[in-house]
Amino acid sequence: MGKISPVAAKYIIHAAISIEGIVSRPDVVGAVFGQTEGLLGSDLELRELQRSGRIGRIEVNVDTVSGKTTGTITVPSSLDKAETSIVGAALEIIQRIGPCNSRIKVSKIEDVRISKRNFVIERAKELLKELQDGVLPDSQELADEVAYSVRVMEIKTYGNDRLPAGPAVDESDDIILVEGRADVVNLLKHSFKNTIALNGTNVPQTIIDLSKKKVMTAFVDGDRGGNLILKELFETCEIDYVTKAPDGKEVEEITKKEIHKALRNRVSAEQAAFELGKDNYGHNGKKGVQIKRTSPAAAPVRPSQSTRQQPPTTVAKNTSPSTTVNKYEKKQLSMNEKKTFNTMLEELIGTRGAFILDEKLNILGKVPTIELVSTVRSLATGVYSIVFDGIIERDLVQVAEKTNIRYLIGMDTRIKSNSTNVGLLTSNDL
User: Fold this and answer.
1) Which of 24, 40, 242, 373 has the maximal Cβ count within 10 Å?
2) What is the CATH number of the domain that holds 239?
3) How confident is the model at residue 143 (pLDDT cuts 50, 70, 90)?
4) Is 150 within a domain?
């Protein structure tokens, strides 16, 4: 009889057999051939199919327990789906094997090609991974690897404290101050050579001396530890700018894009100190007080009823008390003020931030618009105008009136300009 090689079979019929008695394997095979003979016609005669190699060797496994025999039958087939299904169904008509009653149930018809295909796919994945791991990098990858190695090799020690630093600390006017060596390595990797590390939580004397000569930008992690380091720096160094890594990330793990974004969004040390809740950001700082809170004696004098030149007696007699108690009179904007306000307003578009200005139009600090009302309320005096990315609301106007703020400049306003002494300006007015 012919036999199909396991690799040539397309389908395998799996059947379970249950016999009420004790029989042997030849009995089962003989019953399969004998009881299906002539049932399916000459084209599907099992003996002829096996002889021609279209049906493989019928494998029977039986086990006898307590006078009953159970087992399995497997039939490899190279027929098509329909013919294989017919052969499988023909097995289930066998009801007796030898002298014993039996029952055969086809559990499934396995498509060998599916399992082969799955094997091919999984093996192909393994081979592709091995190929990619072992393939030579292209020219760009080689160049990047060499450049990275060179940058990392450029790290050196600086000062008496032997702090990890980039090669351009001495010749650069702007210095990026980070927390540790890993931060310096990451910045060097992305071509920032003017970096130096604290190398600990205590501020070394080298950093203190360097901050007096260079423009210092503190670049800290975006966690609570970064805030603690900032507070220490504010107490000991002359920090000019502050920036932070994204929330929850460390400087050593952020990407080149995130580094550039963080440095573009750096803020003044005064604003950073204010956001940390400090009145002063350093006893020996370059800028002094973060946002200077002047005492009542030093506060700018606003024109009042007692200090303004009295109008003629005849006019005063006809003026009611309620109309004469104005904090100050609105004045026409100068060209310089209008230009400055317009430039700042354009800079703030989309940032949801606010600039707090003094009378000389110097920026005292920058805060989020959501914190603007509380910030102005806490400052009390010394603020001349506020430029912010938002809509002028009633609560902000009321606080501005109490703190003698001269101008509020926003994108739009919901308050009529003639209802307050505060000058309300929008982008259309500028």
Assistant:
1) 242
2) 3.40.1360.10
3) low
4) yes
What's the distance, Cα to Cα, between the start and end of the chain in Å?
A: 101
420 and 317: one domain?
A: yes
Mean pLDDT of 170-175: 88
- Backbone φ and ψ for 138, nearest 5 degrees, come out as -75, 180
Torsions phi, psi of 187, nearest 5? -70, -40
User: Residue 339 falls within a domain, yes or no?
Assistant: yes
106 and 152 together in one domain: no
Please give the tally of structural domains in the chain: 3
Q: Are residues 317 and 374 in the same domain?
A: yes
Distance CA 43, CA 38 (A): 10
Quickly state the pLDDT bin for 135 (edges 50, 70, 90): low
Contact 374, 396 (CB under 8 A): no
CATH at residue 360:
3.40.140
Per the DSSP assignment, residues forming a β-bridge with 195 are 176
Final residue of a domain: which of 115, 137, 153? 115
Its pTM stands at 0.37
Provide the pLDDT for residue 279: 40
- AA identity, residue 33: F
* Residue 194: closest CA among 212, 172, 210: 172
What are the structure tokens assigned to 418, written together? 């003639």
**239: nearest Cα among 263, 265, 270, 202:** 270
Query: Is the per-residue pLDDT at 44 higher than 50?
Result: yes
Q: Are residues 174 and 253 in the same domain?
A: yes
Distances from the Cα of 405 to the Cαs of 292, 301, 328, in angstroms?
Answer: 15, 12, 10
Helix (H, G, I), strand (E, B) or coil at 118: helix
User: Of 241, 259, 277, which marks where a domain is finished?
Assistant: 259
DSSP3 helix / strand / coil % (the chain, rounded to 5): 40, 20, 40
Contact 189, 205 (CB under 8 A): no
Are residues 388 and 342 located together in one domain of the fold? yes
Q: Which domain holds residue 412?
A: 313-425
Residue (of 184, 344, 2) closest to 176 by Cα position:
184
Mean pLDDT over 34-60 rounds to 86
